Amino acid sequence: MTPPPPSPPHLRLGRAGEDAATALLGGKGYAVLERNYRAKGGEVDIICRDGDTLVFVEVKTRGPGSLGRPDQAVTPAKRRRIALAAAAYLSERNLWEMPCRFDVVAIVARDGGHTATHMPDAFGVEDALDTRRFYQP
Q1: Which residues, 6+ apart, have CB-to-CB distance to 108 below 8 Å?
Q2: Tens place of pLDDT for every residue, the chain, 137 residues?
Q3: Which of 14, 40, 47, 63 reaches 20 to 30 Å from 110, CA-CA?
């Protein structure tokens, strides 16, 4: 049986960034619950707990030579998809009463290492969704 083909470089870079973000958050005492949670309409890279708060984390990684900061890639459309996935997660687990927030971890990969910046409470659901049409059970 032949081994699967290697992942494209951008996927390996993204996975390494998520690994670095998971280590960073774990080092801060966050309990990582899930990685790469997918729901109709969106995905959340990392879901964790910070004390009594449920945290939905978007990880953006940029390699050497990339233009712009990684966090600038968390566009309104991306925030919307994250919020939709977060809503699905809360509904599936009946966690609507739990305090939540949206964080971003920006990773800049350099030869031989990386720099990770954690941005707690980077955006709110009101920034991501038209809350007049947002349904919460």
Answers
A1: 61, 62, 66, 69, 70, 114, 115
A2: 666 666 677 677 778 889 999 999 999 999 999 999 999 989 999 999 999 999 999 999 988 777 778 888 899 999 999 999 999 999 999 999 999 999 999 999 887 788 899 999 999 887 666 554 555 54
A3: 47
Backbone dihedral region for residue 120 (phi beyond 0: left; psi -120 to 50: alpha; all else: beta): beta
What does the block give as tokens for 54?
A: 């449920």
Tell which CATH classification among 3.40.50.720, 3.40.50.300, 3.30.70.141, 3.40.1350.10 matches the domain 9-128. Answer: 3.40.1350.10
